[in-house]
Design goal:
It is a single chain. This protein is an alpha+beta fold and 105 residues long. It has one domain. It contains two helices and three strands. It has a three-stranded antiparallel sheet. Strand 2 and strand 3 form a beta hairpin. The termini are far apart. The model has no long low-confidence stretch (mean pLDDT 77).
Amino acid sequence: MDNETQRRVELEVQIARDERAYQRGMLDVREQAPLLHFRCHTGPAFTADTLLSGMHKVSENKAYQMLQAIEETEILLRHMAQHHRSLGAPGGPGPGAGATQPPHE
């Protein structure tokens, strides 16, 4: 491990040991030049790069989930519309389309 990596690891451990971090809110920011560190109220500590990378992955996953939900909704709506039309509802051919209805008595 090179000196810079060793220094960063030691800094992460130091931040993780700081018990006051639990009292500071959801995400505490600590500047230790030249690095920024963030600490969650539950204990995990992150460098700015690590936090950004993790947030990017979460955002990307949520975007794919949202896209999948939209596509599944479209499929469901198309099936519902097809079913609705097959029952003879206005807007499409259904059973007996074009046949005349007997008069109501």
